[in-house]
Amino acid sequence: MSASFEPIESQPAAGARALSPAAADRVLAKAQRHFRQGRTDAAAELFTSLVHTPRHAIGALRGLGACEQVKGNFLGAVGWYMQAVDVDPSSAISLRALAKALDLAGHLDLAVLAYERAVVAAPLDMEGVCDYAFALRRSLRLDDAKAILDSALMGVTDHARLYGERASVLFDLRRQSESEEDYRKACSLDPHNAGHWVAFGEVLDRGQSWAESLEAYRKGARAADDHVLPSATFYFAKCNACEWTGLDALERKLLTMPLESDRPAPPFLFLNLPSTPAQQAAQSAAFVKRIRIGSQIDHSDRRVEPRPKGDRIRVGYLSADFHQHATSLLMAGFFEQHDRSRFETFAYSVGIDDGTEMRQRVIASFDSFYECSKASDQAIVSRILSDRIDILVDLKGYTHNAREHVAAYRAAPIQVAYIGYPGPLAADFIDYTLVDEHIVPPEEQEHYVENLVYLPGCYQVNDSTRPIADWKPSRTDLGLPENAFVFACMNQAYKIKPDVFDVWMRILGRVPGSVLWLLSVRPKARDNLRAEAAKRGMDPDRIIFAEAAKNHVHLARLRQADLFLDTAPINAHTTASDALWAGLPLLTVTGRTFVGRVAGSLLKSVGMPDLITPDLKSYEDLAVAIATEPGRCDHLKERLAAARSTAPLFDTVRTTRAIERAYETMFERWRNGEQPRPFSVAD
Questions:
Q1: Closest CA to 206 of 163, 247, 240, 250
Q2: Residue 346: enclosing H or E segment and its boundaries?
Q3: What is the pTM of this model?
Q4: pLDDT in tens, 547-581
Q5: Burial level of 610, CB count in 10 A (0-12/13-18/19+)?
Q6: Beta carbons within 10 angstroms of residue 273's beta carbon
């Protein structure tokens, strides 16, 4: 490990005047004042003048480290802190500062050792214990972290952070009830700590204690009203519960709050806002600053020379969704169709093994499959480097269980984002994002740091072998009226927004006897949706909920609906593909951003662009026309049935070959020493 700092001399420079103790005190106070005021260069100059003063040497060295750390030169900070530790190896303050800088610089393994030494030096410093446990947790040494915290809590019973850290560890160990108990204790000890409330809300949400979860998020937002993360998580929880009171005001607040890089909210939480591409890009940029901290080791220089021409291109896929998940439902056929004469494929799985047939199918589709869910980011990077991956494809982006730091470490010379995150990543460590011209028009490249690669037709790959159950349920079997026009929307509850719901209720009012068939959601959301229908003068019984079902069964039952009504600003994505594959026509409204244009791209790819509307008024009128004009809906279903075997959307081989051509272009440009730049793939 190297550090970009200038080592101090062992003695003062010739001619240097020794400072009296009183003068040294004044210089130190002035240096600290400069540092607090953000004048790091002036502070560093004064700290340097004190490094040979026995009384202030350690403080000066730590001050120089802090100056480098504030400037983002974490390795430089490491160098100064190491010298402070050399002067006094038992100083817990110096050791903690060193550990933090090592952590920020991306040397988590070394940081853990420094945190451990700090705890040995000051075993009663509970903040130091918490820092050590947090580092152990991120190293996935969960049992060690729990043991340290258990020991500390035997002697200290009123330290909120100790309980909060142990709650996080217990959550990762999937000890749900114990995690809830510890978070409840942490929040009671420090009720103004928004971080604890947000984390507690997440744990309660995972345990399906949804009402209590929403209240925890609400308290987190109140505890830190001026910070983005608590408000954003509360907003998303309200959307999930279809609790719309005050939603407009919260949206306006989130869109105008200052962006924070020290405590950023995951950008995914902002996709459901009525935001612009520029606003989404800015939110991602704030999040990337946080990712960059702790990922400053750039491995790209490890792969200067590409392997000889004729060798297969090595493509690695990083995902937490190699199981029964929407991503695998779309991509399993793609993985199987890869041309093995030109590509060698590797999977790095950071998610669960659910034991399903889909999991086994995906494993079998790769040349090499690695289970990495219990591996640290650095261990995964080492595995990717040892496999000499040419192109690393991140299938998660900024979604749940993503490992953003793996790409930030530059684990491969070419890094690509695909399918997982429908928006700007603002990440300079992602070279390319695969899109199409409908979801991201070329003029919107300015909102993307990553270079846009335009695939022909629709960007979304589909599996043309996806089974549909032979089961042919009647409407009565599904709880639907036999002779009604059935509008359906199988999107998650958080995508249902008040303005779209207003339109749905007007559609039901204009189509006598029609019903709205929704995916079964949380009990509170169901109650809220029925109540919102009643507020709009609609009989709540005209909303019918479908329980969760296996995908092939779900596809079979979709055939009993007449028209899928899409949501905005987030469209149906995989759920739209489900509908079209099952033969159910879909009506959408074009959004302002990637996330709101996906369904339109799918419709274009099946030859049904006439079902893409420009605004909600057109959407409403067209839905009513389809439902009330004799034969119109049947004609749409006939067109869709005819397109099923011929449309580019469901041609897995065609899309696979297009993506492979994109990979080859990226690889050749890298081989030739060219910088990444946008391009289009010919059909």
A1: 240
A2: strand 343-349
A3: 0.90
A4: 999 999 999 999 999 999 999 999 999 999 999 99
A5: exposed
A6: 23
| Cβ pair 268, 252 in contact under 8 A | no
Task: For residues 332-341, give the mean pLDDT.
Answer: 97
Q: How many residues does the chain have?
A: 683
Tokens of 668: 């050749």
Q: For residue 189, what are its two tokens?
A: 């000890």
The amino acid at 116:
E
Q: Which two tokens stand for residue 180?
A: 């809830």
Equal CATH topology for 1-123 and 191-292: yes
- 331 contacts 463 by C-beta, under 8 angstroms: yes
Q: Residue 532: which of 210, 235, 244, 272 has the closest Cα? A: 244
Tokens (6 digits) for 609: 């662009």
The Cβ of residue 83 has, within 10 Å, a number of other Cβ atoms equal to: 22
* SS3 state of residue 583: coil
Residues near 27 by Cβ (< 8 Å), separated by ≥ 6?
Answer: 19, 46, 49, 50
How many angstroms separate the most distant Cα atoms in the chain?
100
CATH code of the domain made up of 191-292: 1.25.40
State the distance between the two ends of the chain, measured CA to CA, in whole angstroms: 47
Number of Cβ within a 10 Å radius of residue 616: 15
Q: Of 3.40.50.300, 3.40.50.720, 3.30.1330.10, 3.40.50.2000, which CATH number belongs to 476-650?
A: 3.40.50.2000
Q: Do residues 137 and 172 touch, judged by C-beta distance below 8 A?
A: yes
Task: Reply yes or no on whether the pLDDT at 591 is more than 50.
Answer: yes
Please report, as a single letter, which amino acid is at residue 167. A
Residue type, 549: A
E strand or H helix at 109: helix 108-121
pLDDT value for 296: 61
CATH of domain 300-464+657-680: 3.40.50.11380
Question: What are phi and psi for residue 81, nearest 5 degrees?
Answer: -65, -35
User: What secondary structure does DSSP assign to 139-208, as a single string?
Assistant: TT-HHHHHHHHHHHHHH-S--HHHHHHHHHHHHHTT-HHHHHHHHHHHHHH-TT-HHHHHHHHHHHHHTT
Contact (CB, 8 A) for 313 and 391 = yes
Higher pLDDT, 580 or 4: 580
Assess contact for 91 and 81: CB atoms under 8 A.
no
* Phi, then psi, of 351 in degrees rounded to 5: -115, -165
Closest CA to 91 of 64, 124, 58: 58
Stated as kind and residue range, the H or E segment containing 435 is: strand 432-435
Tokens of 298: 């750039």
Report pLDDT digits (tens) over 370-409.
999 999 898 999 999 999 999 999 999 999 899 999 999 8
Residue 313 CA neighbour count, 13 Å, CB half: 23
pLDDT at 307 over 80: no
Handedness of CA 598, 436, 232, 406 (dihedral sign): positive
* Cα–Cα distance for residue pair 545/489, rounded to 1 Å: 10
Residue type (1 letter), 101: A
Give the pLDDT score at 183. Answer: 97
Say whether 316 sits in a helix, a strand or coil.
Answer: strand
Q: Which CATH architecture has domain 1-123?
A: Alpha Horseshoe (1.25)
Query: At what angle are helices 160-172 and 194-206 packed, to 10 degrees?
Result: 30
Tokens matching residue 643: 């397109």
Q: Which two tokens stand for residue 394?
A: 């991140």
Q: Name the one residue in this structure whose structure tokens are 């550090």.
A: 3
- Using only the alpha carbons of the chain, give its radius of gyration: 28
Task: Say how many C-beta atoms besides its own lie within 10 A of residue 548's C-beta.
Answer: 8
242: left (phi over 0), alpha (psi -120 to 50) or beta: left
